[in-house]
Design goal:
By secondary structure, the chain is an all-beta fold. The chain is 1% helix and 49% strand. Strands 1, 4, 5, 6, 7, 8, 9, 10 and 11 form a 9-stranded antiparallel beta sheet that branches. Strands 12, 14, 15, 17, 22, 23, 24 and 26 form an 8-stranded antiparallel beta sheet that branches.
Length: 394
């Protein structure tokens, strides 16, 4: 279904001559035709606009992705090449049912495109394929069956004039929803540590919220440990964020997170924890821990020595995606763990004690390692979500 949208307010007609670097769209296409400049915000018909917190794209020629959100038709995002894409983050899961797109020079060419949605910025589903009308520079709405999504992506497939992807304005259409199964997010999209209970760090540079590299959204955590880092006067060296999850005995949750190890992450035959559910009330090894040993990533249950229930080769400089399904219990016939790694079920449900008797756990994320390691260690974390249902983290 397609509807034409108009810009509210008075329009100014401007003549603009081509200029700029020789690889820009204007230089290739020749002088621009008249452009309409809105003096008021974009309004939509048959499209309830959703707010957008950030936008990224596969590339640009100097006409940046943010131009598609500035309420102006005389600016644009442009990139040369079929399969160029632009991607909008809605900040939270929404019910998305369409996209309003104003195509640059949309009255002179017909654009082929597809629309895709995603809940996590990793897996996308195509929800629409079609063409622009080729008759207007105003926005047009392209509707599809409502889908729960956090991100909307437009793939450009070519047009009747050239291979330049070029869009003046975009709005996602739909309604806000509340995902009752999501208990907590620690995805750093606040730009700080405020989603977490506290930080254990020797200085602010050890637990930095960064804008690159990212697995999703706008921010991730960069955790760095140097020999001697001991912010809580305990064994080993560490810099970690703490979330007092305190899951009750008998409770069951899914935890989604992504981790990337720096290219120079140390290869040592000793322990380097990057995620742990630590028990309250005492010292000792945590009942559930992800760690690196030599060139392996391992999931250990039950403390020291515990049981290594899963392991995989360590890969550096690539995001590793995890979904851990846990039932919390000190009873090995009740408690269990189940693990998905990079989208695949790698550990079917394994019944095992996941708590110590009389104690609940809390979450720690960052890097905690043996104090015998001399090299600097860096690991990145992103996308932390705690939920009641698998569908809430997929």
């Amino acid at each position: 279904m397609k509807k034409t949208l108009l810009l509210a307010g008075t329009f100014l007609i401007l003549g603009v001559a081509a200029c700029g670097a020789p690889d820009t769209e204007e230089a290739i296409e020749g002088p621009s035709q008249t452009l309409e400049t809105a003096t008021a915000a974009l309004t939509t018909q048959n499209c309830s606009q959703l707010s957008v917190i950030s936008v990224i794209a596969s590339g640009n020629d100097g006409n940046v992705p943010a131009n598609t959100l500035d309420d102006r038709l005389d600016t644009r995002w442009s990139n040369l090449g079929r399969d160029s894409w632009i991607d909008f983050d809605l900040g939270a899961e929404r019910s998305v049912s369409g996209a309003a797109i104003a195509w640059h020079q949309g009255d002179q060419r017909i654009n082929d495109f597809t629309l895709h949605v995603s809940t996590d910025g990793m897996s996308y589903t195509q929800v629409y394929t079609g063409k622009s009308s080729g008759t207007t520079t105003a926005a047009e709405t392209y509707s599809f069956a409502a889908r729960t999504a956090r991100r909307l992506r437009i793939y450009f497939k070519g047009n009747t004039v050239n291979d330049w992807a070029s869009i003046a304005e975009v709005r996602a259409c739909g309604t806000s929803i509340t995902s009752s199964g999501v208990v907590w997010r620690g995805d750093f999209e606040t730009g700080d540590h405020s989603q977490w209970t506290r930080a254990q760090m020797v200085s602010a540079d050890r637990l930095q919220v960064v804008s690159s590299p990212l697995r999703q959204g706008r921010y991730a955590l960069k955790a760095t440990v140097r020999q001697g880092d001991d912010p809580i006067n305990a064994s080993g060296n560490r810099n970690e964020l703490v979330r007092m999850t305190r899951e009750p005995t008998g409770s069951e949750y899914y935890y989604k997170f992504s981790t990337m190890f720096a290219s120079d992450f140390p290869s040592v035959k000793t322990w380097q924890l990057f995620t742990q559910w630590h028990h309250e009330g005492g010292s000792g090894s945590p009942p559930v821990e992800f760690y690196v040993y030599s060139e392996e990533i391992r999931l250990n249950i039950g403390g020291d020595p515990g049981v290594i229930v899963w392991k995989t080769p360590l890969v550096r400089s690539q995001w590793q995606d995890f979904i851990l399904h846990v039932k919390w219990s000190p009873d090995p016939s009740v408690g269990f763990v189940e693990l998905y790694h990079n989208g695949k079920l790698v550990l079917p449900k394994r019944y095992i004690a996941t708590q110590y008797s009389g104690m609940v756990n809390y979450l720690k994320v960052g890097l905690y390692r043996s104090d015998t390691i001399t090299q600097v260690g860096t690991v990145y974390h992103d996308g932390w979500t705690m939920a009641r249902n698998l569908s809430d983290v997929l």
